[in-house]
Design a protein that fits this description.
about 160 residues, globular, 2,3-Dihydroxybiphenyl 1,2-Dioxygenase, domain 1, three-stranded antiparallel β-sheet
Length: about 160
Amino acid sequence: MDKKEFFNIVQYIVNQGKIIAINYSGETNLQIGYLDIFAKDETEKDTLLSIIEKLGKIVERPKTGLTFQLNNPLITDLGPLKLIKIRFPDPSRPQRGAPDFKVPDYEIFKKKMLGKKNVNLIERLKYEMIEIWDENEDVLVYFPNKLLSDDLSLNQ
């Protein structure tokens, strides 16, 4: 894998996430905030890390992977992307990855989405998020009530 293939993975996750988000929510005013790439195995994890380490610095070390703030944002159809997490291999996450999207009003969005098919509310200590999945797709989609960049006090 080279840098171009890495960027292709990022674009694929953003584009598939956008399609899923629009299909399930009807929301078209999406802004990318963060992106997870799910490593398929240890070899891919090491390869992904070797590429991203040249593009930015580690800003978070959760037990599930490493989050990097990029020196230069990647430009996507849904805005600049400055935070990418390389998620360690996990059999419970066979998907390719997951983008986090920001919507203009999370509370209104949440009320609209709760109770719909393939939609979950995930509650954590410091935040919550709406999860959307499609069993026919290999990308999960998340809408957090606050962006990770805000939580890490990063200027995105």
